[in-house]
Amino acid sequence: MPLAEHLRELRNRLVKSVLAILAGTIVAAFFYDQLLDLLTGPWERAIDNLRDSGQPVKAELTFPGIAEPFTFALKISLVAGLVVSSPVWLYQIWSFIVPALHRNERRWSLLFSAIAGPLFIVGFVTGYYVLPKGIELLISFTPEGVANLNSLSDYLSFVLRILLVFAVAFEIPLFVILLNGMGAVSAKQLAGARAWIIVGTFVFAAVATPSTDPITMLFLALPMTVLFLVAELVAFLVDRRRAKRDAEVGLVGVSDDEASEIRIERDVRDDMPSPLDDDDTGGSRPAP
Fold first, then answer.
1. Residue 138 CA to its chain's centroid (Å)
2. Is residue 52 situated within a structural domain?
3. pLDDT per residue over 191-221, tens digit each?
4. Claim: this prediction has a pTM higher than 0.85
5. Separation CA 115–CA 100 (nearest Å)
6. 162 located within any domain
């Protein structure tokens, strides 16, 4: 396909994606109250838990300006529109890329999408579930007699950032499997570095989670550890299958950068004199 055709196809798919996002945003605007309740649910539960424990809490979600309610309604509707229309614009991206992929690459891409999507959703839901505990701990540091006022826009950014951290963290074991499939990492290497990887997982969870309590950290670190162990098991099975295949074709013990042996079989006729070869007298010898 010429470059101009590629550009026209890209334009058409971008237009379809934008229209889908716009339609999803308009539909989400009609459910603004339900979306607001879903967003502020972790905040309300955190405040109720603090008050039930007997701690005096002065914390509110506010709008700092006159136009802020309208701007916030657009933001939350747009975020919901992106989520609702994601099957459409993801399909447009896939349809634009897939013609350039080989059949094997398409199969691996579909497998990656089939696994990455559910893992992303599970991480997103897990982050939403542990969010009230993190908010509860953070607000508990507010000194007595001081009101904790938070802009809804800042609160939305905070929630989305934490949910994305959980969602992306759940994708890390999948990338480990992909690296193993490409031959960049072996199951033996993963097993040797298992202790350091688990320690690094807990350090990452402690830094990435919004609070400093161990419960929130464990909610992120433990699933990541289990997923890594599953990824290590998958890598072991892949390496065993690869070793069996190499044994069948005689590639056991052969390094990836080792030159292959080239067998040269010369024909008997190659040793026969050519009719065009000159004889000793300078003339041409007749053909045998």
1. 28
2. yes
3. 888 889 888 888 887 777 655 667 777 777 8
4. no
5. 22
6. no
